């Protein structure tokens, strides 16, 4: 499964040739948890006007790198660097202080998998891990995330 995720990520970050054709597995996704309904997030736990909540509800498109029952990792639509991605919890927490430790742990536990895949896919030898927490720290979308 990890090898497949890396292959998908590599095909998106390092497309072959000057006019790449996208891997069909990388089409814009609705970012919902699947057709079984087990992992669906209750809409009452999401905010109507939050862009990340809209992605989680399937109302906005995204390119999904990873998803489980607690969090979602997507490529940034306005990347600051090659491989710029975000790990967001599936429930709405405006800041890190308001996020339960178990959710923070779930998000952080994905960092090695995602960062290693991005480093390999981009040919980089390093990466940044950031959390903008609060307006003074540059947070613009008040749904906690790491990127």
TrEMBL record:
Region annotation (Disordered) ranges: 14-43
Transmembrane feature ranges: none
Coiled-coil regions listed: none
A matching Pfam family: HIT
Gene Ontology MF terms: adenylylsulfatase activity
Stretches assigned to the HIT domain: 51-147
Gene3D superfamilies in the cross-refs: HIT-like
Protein name: Histidine triad nucleotide-binding 3
